[in-house]
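LAB NOTEBOOK - FOLDING QUEUE
OPERATOR: T.R.
BATCH SIZE: 2
PURPOSE: Compare the predicted structure-token outputs for two unrelated chains run back to back under identical settings.
PRIORITY: normal
REVIEWER: second-year student, initials M.K.

ITEM 1
FIELD SEQUENCE / FIELD STRUCTURE:
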Amino acid sequence: MAKKPPIDLFSLCMKGDQPYSISQ
């Protein structure tokens, strides 16, 4: 599992992207 920075999650939240994007 590639550990992604928490900023990624925040960025997605701000953009309003779908949660599936985080899995990628």
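ITEM 2
FIELD SEQUENCE / FIELD STRUCTURE:
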Amino acid sequence: ATEGPGYVWHCHLLEHEDNEMMRPYKVIPVIDSDLEIPLQDLLIILGLILIVVLFLIIRLKK
């Protein structure tokens, strides 16, 4: 699939191999993009996600 060494995403279930769920992939350098998110904004987003998840966990326990 790629030149040189790569990695195979896998587990040890034969069914996954039979269903094409074990595929090689290659780690490549990140390409510059306009989608950069400042660290402070990223932390705010992650914090909000955590709050929502905790709220849902508490609500489902009732």
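REVIEWER COMMENT (ITEM 2): The mean pLDDT is 77.
FOLLOW-UP: none requested
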